[in-house]
Amino acid sequence: MNLEYFATDSQGFVTDNDRALEELYGDEENPRKGDACLNVMATRIATVFASLREFPSVRYRAAKSLDPMTMTTFRDMIPTKLAARVWNCLMQYKKIPNFPQTETCELLILDRSVDQIAPIIHEWTYDAMCRDLLNMEGNKYVHEVPGKAGGPPEKQEVLLEEHDPVWLELRHAHIADAYERLHDKMTTFIAKNKAAQIQHGSRDGGELSTWDLQKMVQALPQYSEQIDKLSLHVEIAGKINRIIGDLGLQEIGQIEQDLVFGDAGMKDVIKFFTSKEDVTCENKLRVLMILAAIYPDKFEGEKGLNLMKLAKLPPDDMNAVKNMSLLGQPSDTKNSSTGAFSLKFDIHKKTHATRKEHTGKEETWQLSRFYPIIEDLIENLSKGELSKEDYPYTNDPSPTAHGTSQPASVRQAPEAHSMRSRRTPTWARPRNSDDGYSSDSILRHTSSDFKKMGKRIFVFIVGGATRSELRVCHKLTSKLNREVILGSSSLDDPPQFITKLKLLTADELNGWQMNSLDDIEI
């Protein structure tokens, strides 16, 4: 059996439909090309379930324009069409010997319309910052190390993947937290090793640079592996911190999150653009795109062009903002039952908030308020509270498939509802390592018994998933005691997503005349 997908990590996969956004959401609808794309995607999704011996109940985001007076677009029907195709493939698999005959897990099919902000906003975790700011090629990071025998520095490629225990421990930590923990690990390493103290002593107690650490590797070969790992991540975290300072990302991140949670509006963005002349074009564009997701009416016609003029952005960037409307509106705040997701807001306090604050969440680190919408959707799905009107079933689940939110201990034994064998995961729950300089304990503790967990939850996002959404799936696996797996047509970092969004239309804006800034409506 062909297994047509790529694993991005132990709880994520992509179907490698890298042009799905262009083929499915382009300004000129092409149902023939779109159907071909969905057929390939459905086949590839189905092979995930074949390889894991899982048979899901399938749910999807319902089309928003189902009233008879409104014409339903192809784009609006994408989750519906994909769900039907996946179901048809799975029905063929039921003929295979030993394939489950009743539902063993849940699959929720979404598209990018449920959350247009997650692919654009700055995500402040170590993993996301690496991808967003360091121009990495896939998981590959290139850095300089001291040359052999005193020669010139050499370039070295390293992979930031789950086999690296330091990466495994810190990838989902806030960048400030990761930086502090790395510093603590190095301090503890030096305190525990006399030879390291001698090396460090030559620095008169000063801070160790990355270069010092790499020289220490040469002087202390017996500790080379530990120091190698630590020095690599100290270098990366230090570089990210410098970029954050150079680009003024804290102020940018603040206005982004204030917009999302309704604490800032159009006036604040205009004030920000007029007072911050040194903000890069890409970061101004990202703020404008978040603004467009929240206030789409402010970008109709010439209003949007005037905002672009205020931000001093080229017409090419305007395409990215304008094309967000092709992804569909995320929700109708006047009538949340017809929207892509249902959230209740305090309309007197935060009229334009796109998501509610998570109560009871202690915000230890600045700019950690943001969360992707799928976090609420997955929690509601697990609790059996996800709207069946907004997220209907493709099939009527069999009676044994109900009640999946019960604790694992009161359900049937796994063998009674699943034909698969649970694998040992390589993800790690947040915990401190047993020693101060090595994170190997993370790897030793990853043999949690998945058989004690409930049924798996699969979420598939058409049009590209984000690092924040993958992080949430790891987090909810621990919280819900159910392995949550994220699939998508691609895994995109903000620069990639913005480039793809620009390709949805030809550049139609070069000939347009921009009017006076006096015309901007606030």
From TrEMBL:
InterPro entries: Sec-1-like_dom3a, Sec1-like, Sec1-like_dom2, Sec1-like_sf. SUPFAM superfamilies: Sec1/munc18-like (SM) proteins. Residues 395-409 have a biased composition (Polar residues). One of its GO terms (biological process) is vesicle-mediated transport. It holds the Pfam family Sec1. It comes from the Eukaryota. Residues 388-441 are annotated as: Disordered. Belongs to the STXBP/unc-18/SEC1 family. This is Sec1/munc18-like (SM) proteins superfamily isoform 1. It comes from Tripterygium wilfordii. The lineage of its organism: Eukaryota, Viridiplantae, Streptophyta, Embryophyta, Tracheophyta.
